[in-house]
Amino acid sequence: MSLTPEQPEAVASHPYAIADPKRVPAQRYYSADFARLEKEKLWPHVWQVACRLEDIPEVGDYIEYEINDQSILVVRESEPGPGAGPEAASASGIKAYYNACRHRATALGNGSGTFHGRQIVCPYHGWRWDLNGESTYVFASERGFTPACLDKENLRLREVQVGTWGGMVFVNMDPQAPPLEQYLDGIAKVLDPIAFDRMRVRWWRHVILPCNWKMAQEAFLEAYHIMQAHPSLSMGAADDDYNLEATVGSFECFEEGHAHSRPPTSTEAPVKGMSRADYFIQFNNALYFGTDAFTTEREIFVQQGLLERDIPDEEFIPKFFEALYAHAQGAGIPLPPPVTDTQGYGHIFPNLTFLPGYGTNIIYRSRPNGDDPESCVFEVWAVQIPGADAGEPERPELEGPVPVEEWPQIFREDFRNVIGQQKGVRGAGIDDLIMSERYEAMIINNHRTIDRYLGRD
Ligand code: FES
Ligand SMILES: [Fe+2]
Fold this sequence. Notes:
By secondary structure, the protein is α+β, with helices and mostly antiparallel strands. The chain folds into 2 domains: 1-44 and 192-457, Alpha-Beta Complex (Naphthalene 1,2-dioxygenase Alpha Subunit, Chain A, domain 1), CATH 3.90.380; 48-176, Rieske Iron-sulfur Protein, CATH 2.102.10. The protein contains 12 helices and 20 strands. The strands form 4 sheets. Strands 1-14-15-16-17-18-19-13 form an 8-stranded antiparallel β-sheet. Strand 4 and strand 5 form a beta hairpin. Fe (ii) ion is lined by residues 219, 225, 229-230, 414.
């Protein structure tokens, strides 16, 4: 079921709940009480991306996912299908466990690595489990422990629900939560044509931002800021010379909190006085130099080839896609068919945002940094559908934390704004943040869904 941004929610009763969707209480971004509520009522009950399938390509590989004070190990428990890439493994080949030994709770893994010999071994006293979480060895068990302490079921590693979609592994700490397929149903149908599942990581970086996790991601949930914040994308056009209606389409907001933007109906270039072809070319260039992710060398190569030819303006964009598909076919790149409905950006509740390009995607994950409401871990994955000869890519390495000043320009511009916003939001005269239902519908939908979680008993 989908909602329109205008539909009111029942008024929630917790502190700093949203009464009017056009006004977001400022304390939601810095109050320790509000962060505590999220820690208690949101994060332990919601599906969230723990890692990419590529992070655990071989049986025994694990990666740690941390949220608030919880540490979860995602483990490749069984073989992927014969000759298949990481996507071929079903969710049943992957397990997630609380990262704690059943003896005296020592963490069993740190960061990422491999449990060699398909055994998880506690570094403290050597208790062991197989990858399925079953206890296989307790040192000096008979002399040291009563039979009740050695109950096999009780010694199992404590599990967390797992699901996979789009090349990503999701976890949910709530054993009662409905399955991932049900949770993602509406948004997955919309996004599947983009072929997330065939994309592989080109780079993966993170930054620690001194702002609330919601604030960081909200810079990527609307395009209203482009005119002022990103001169390379607005191409110097200011105010009414920047035609926002040619940039912002409509939004589809789902009850589960997910949302995506649809392409604008206006066929004008967003910059007045500029042809659509010129805008398209400069936009690609700006995103190539400014993100190194949405547009990549591949598209710039195709575009440059066309620029060497004398192509009339009105034919340039269709010719670009024709040439891109021809290039992809030649290079064995299985690009999905051109999609019309899902171009634009999207959001999977509560904290995953993405900006699809041409068989590429920028994926953002924002989460609290421990329990501090004014610090977040913000990650970016640049992903792309690889060519046929690329082979299986290396296990991705997380870079960083990369200081704000070392990110490509467009990220820098966004990061600086949210840092400034966090500074401002504590101002004694600031009670609330004003939202546009037209342009900031995805932000409103996210807050509204958070309130639904926080309002539960
Ligand atoms: S704490 Fe793990 S074996 Fe003792
Ligand atoms: Fe931005």
